[in-house]
Amino acid sequence: MVDAFVAGAAGNTGRPLVEEVHRSGASVRAMVHRPDDEVPGDPEKVVADFDDVDSVRTALRGVRRAYLVTPSSERAEQQQRNFVDAAREAGVERLVLLSQLGARVDSPVRFLRYHAAVEEHVRKSGIEFTFLRPNLYFQGLFAVAATLVEQGVLPAPIGDAAVSAVDVHDIAAVAAAA
């Protein structure tokens, strides 16, 4: 039995999660999209594609707990629903889902609606779950660092709204605990 499965193991939150699980001594299976994708430590690495449900089913065999994150795209909702179904079929006991702050089915923002729809699908699946709902990664601020320093503003269409940010390593620590 594999203790932890990490989808997106070479990504922003997956990489530090693999490190966190590895440090805990638990066994980890790291899902990547390409065989040459690098992941930290020495996890069992499996190549799977969210658009190939059979590859996801195979990757999830023998897994107790799984972490789910997909790239943000127009296919993300269906990819995540398919993953949840495959996890249920594989007997996964707990699913940790990287969702989004403000996820609501009635949101005017498409990706917040799909996060809410996936959360509801997870609730109905019967799998124990934890939803993580960060807003902005501190690491994402590097892309706009020059503007922040030079102009003292975050270039985003948010008016004077407050912004919350979290380090991806903190997300990984919470995901590992869950």
From TrEMBL:
Coiled-coil features, chain-numbered ranges: none
Xref: Pfam families: NAD_binding_10
Domain (NAD(P)-binding): residue spans on this chain: 8-168
Protein origin, superkingdom: Bacteria
Species of the source: Solicola gregarius
Name of the molecule in the record: NAD(P)H-binding protein
Cross-referenced InterPro entries: Ergot_Alk_Oxidoreductase, NAD(P)-bd_dom, NAD(P)-bd_dom_sf
